[in-house]
Design a protein that fits this description.
The protein is mainly α. The chain folds into two domains: 68 residues; 74 residues, no CATH class. Helices cover 85% and strands 0% of the residues. It is built from four helices and no strands. The protein is flat and about 55 Å long. The two termini are 33 Å apart. 25% of the residues are buried.
């Protein structure tokens, strides 16, 4: 699969994930939150972007594995993407729920604090993994 096809497939996966998240979260929050679309909209956009980036990384890894083995860089990037997405999801949801328990509106908790906290945690997690993988590779020494 060439690069253009990987980009198109990744964008379609991101759009599909965003639409599923938008509709599902809007319907789920509908009985509890008056403006559930205002809450689910930003979450759907972030979900779509993260899904597109993760899909591109997975397709790149798969393509390299078919060619005989993935490079260390691709493996580190894919690992960083996975750690970043998981950290983003856990931190964003945890902060949003914690603020919701203190009677902060769900929209403000999600948009103002939850998404930025999740992004910061995801970036720190991904950078830490990339640093660790690079450090581990340096200790191996040259291959004979």
């Amino acid at each position: 699969m060439n690069r253009t096809a990987r980009i198109i497939v990744s964008l379609l996966a991101g759009i599909a994930a965003a639409l599923v998240t938008l509709v599902g979260l809007t319907e789920l929050l509908g009985p509890y939150v008056w403006s559930s679309l205002m809450v689910s909209g930003p979450v759907a956009v972030v979900t779509g972007v993260l899904s597109a980036v993760l899909a591109f990384g997975l397709l790149q890894y798969r393509e390299e594995m078919r060619g005989g083995g993935a490079s260390d860089g691709t493996t580190a990037v894919l690992g960083g993407l996975v750690v970043g997405v998981v950290a983003f999801g856990l931190a964003g949801v945890a902060v949003t729920l914690a603020l919701g328990a203190f009677s902060v509106s769900l929209f403000a908790a999600t948009l103002v604090v939850g998404i930025p906290a999740g992004l910061l945690t995801g970036v720190v997690g991904a950078v830490t993994l990339a640093w660790y993988v690079g450090r581990r590779d340096d200790r191996r020494g040259p291959v004979a």
